[in-house]
Specification:
The chain is an alpha+beta fold and 510 residues long. 42% of the residues lie in helices and 24% in strands. The strands form four sheets. It has a five-stranded antiparallel sheet with strand order 2-1-5-4-3. A five-stranded antiparallel sheet has the order 7-6-10-9-8. A five-stranded mixed sheet has the order 12-14-15-17-16. It starts with 7 loop residues before the first helix and ends in a 10-residue tail after the last strand.
């Protein structure tokens, strides 16, 4: 706690004179707050007074005296003074009581503030009041863990607390009487002086960050708050609280550097993968081409049937490797921001049908039923045909991989409620455990499970992440819902602005 954040409840409770608050509700007056000195004066505990009328803890004569004063004060809306009361058991001597009405925004009296007047003949009460107030404020100033600096109207330092001395190394003799701005770095001094002059005149509060020079010459980053304090004879002082945030600033810089280094490494990795994928695809295309020539016996027959079998294995392996390289290449291009959309208006019905024909033979050989449902008269969409086809192939391939013989895969296309185009690929396969759904959407985040066969675990783990990234390149979304043994549902949203309801809609993209 600092000078600028003194708890008013604490000041009320520790006042050296009796004081209590009374609520006004019609002709009912109830005590709602009372300090320690008032409890001592009435010789009662708090529970015997709080929420009670004065009749509950005073004799009838004194209660009547108070209630009459309450009525006058609340009715006339003016302060009232009453003399000291006889026959009260407490040992505290008072001259009388002030009763002040507190009004709400409509001018109605809601609370009466009742405070004892010290007995003028007892000078010790006044002295104790002054001593207690000084002691309280001094304690708050000295024990605060936040550095506090008090400056006069000229910006000269008149007082600092122990925390400031301890945190920044300056001895009091080194800085008392000197310009506070000299403790700041040169680039901040003029602004600090101008602000000090403005705020001490206007009384405004201020806060912000600044750089303070420690005794050893190092720089401390601090958050400051200031408030103006006016004492007798209109003397004004500025109280500034200082909290050292140097470590936090250093951590922010370190985190920023680490982030930049990670981004640089990530871009370098993506560029490396893109370049290497190109280098690997060239010889693979040659292997595939020559294998096809040899397997088809274009330039003559193979003497041994075993060679045909081996050549078929070479061709299958090369095609699988090329598929993996293409996935890595696409993902690296996306991460490096080098994959550009080649957009055109397309008919989703025709695209879905071509994908279904392409995957039909694999589904048939695996004993899996493949169906689709496309709403009639769907509008065209403005997308990159190759990428959307790749998304659908990846999703259907995943379903084929995780469906058992006799399983079922269903592809559905239609318009969503917000005008977006929605494509759903669902299956009744093995599914993905709920706690691993997010992992399946991360690049190379293939879900591993000892219960899955080699067929289920083959691949790079890029199919779903690639589909998600390709949809996001279009401003769309991919949602994955799955659970172990419950199958998988993948929903694609192509945003409504890419749906062409009439020929003029294409002008949005020109």
């Amino acid at each position: 706690m600092t000078l600028t954040t003194i708890d008013h409840k604490q000041l009320f409770d520790t006042m050296p004179v009796p004081r209590f608050l009374v609520s006004v509700a019609g002709d009912e007056y109830k005590v709602i707050e009372i300090n320690d000195r008032a409890l001592e004066y009435f010789d009662r505990r708090g529970e015997a007074i709080l929420g009670k009328s004065v009749e509950d803890f005073m004799d009838s004569e004194n209660a009547r005296h108070f209630n009459q004063s309450f009525e006058v004060c609340s009715g006339q809306k003016v302060p009232v003074t009453i003399q000291a009361l006889p026959n009260l058991p407490g040992s505290i001597r008072v001259h009388g009581f002030w009763i002040n009405p507190l009004l709400d925004a409509h001018g109605n009296v809601t609370i009466l503030d009742v405070m004892a007047q010290p007995d003028a003949s007892d000078e010790s009460i006044l002295q104790r009041e002054r001593d207690d107030a000084i002691s309280l404020l001094t304690s708050i100033f000295d024990v605060s863990e936040i550095g506090i600096v008090v400056t006069d109207h000229n910006g000269r330092i008149v007082r600092v607390n122990d925390s400031f001395v301890r945190n920044y190394g300056w001895k009091r003799d080194d800085i008392i009487g000197y310009d506070f701005a000299m403790l700041l770095t040169p680039d901040e001094r003029k602004l600090a002086r101008d602000n000090h002059e403005d705020y001490i005149v206007s009384g405004e509060r201020s806060s912000g960050e600044m750089k303070l020079i420690r005794k050893d010459g190092t720089i401390a980053n601090v958050i400051f708050t200031t408030a103006t304090l006016e004492l007798s004879q209109r003397r004004r002082f500025q109280v500034t609280n200082l909290m050292d945030i140097t470590m936090r600033k250093q951590m922010e810089v370190s985190l920023q550097v680490a982030k930049e280094q990670a981004d640089t490494a990530n871009h370098a990795k993506s560029s490396f993968l893109a370049n290497m994928s190109h280098e690997l695809r060239t010889p693979l295309n040659a292997i595939i081409g020559f294998s096809e020539l040899m397997l088809n016996e274009t330039f003559g027959s193979l003497a041994n049937e075993k060679y045909k079998e081996y050549m078929a294995d070479v061709l299958l392996s090369a095609r699988h490797l090329l598929e993996i390289i293409n996935e890595v290449l696409d993902m690296s291009k996306i991460e490096a921001g080098r994959l550009e959309l080649d957009e055109e208006p397309i008919d989703l019905y025709k695209l879905i049908e071509s994908v279904m024909r392409m995957m039909a033979s694999r589904a048939f050989s695996s004993g899996i039923e493949l169906e689709d449902e496309v709403v009639d008269n769907l509008p065209q969409v403005y997308v990159d045909t190759r990428l959307i086809r790749q998304v659908l192939i990846n999703l259907v391939s995943n379903s084929l991989k995780f469906c058992e013989r006799g399983g079922h895969i269903f592809v559905k296309v239609g318009l969503g409620d917000a005008g977006e185009m929605t494509i759903t690929v669902s299956d009744d396969g093995l599914g993905i455990p709920k706690d691993k759904v997010q992992e399946a959407l991360e690049p190379f985040g293939q879900v591993k499970d000892s219960t899955l066969s080699a067929k289920n675990q083959q691949g790079t783990g890029l199919g779903l992440p690639l589909a998600k990234a390709m949809m996001e390149l279009h401003g769309g979304e991919l949602f994955l819902k799955s659970d172990e043994g419950m199958g998988t549902v993948v929903t694609l949203h192509i945003p409504s602005q890419r749906v062409l309801h009439n020929p003029d809609d294409i002008n949005r993209f020109k």
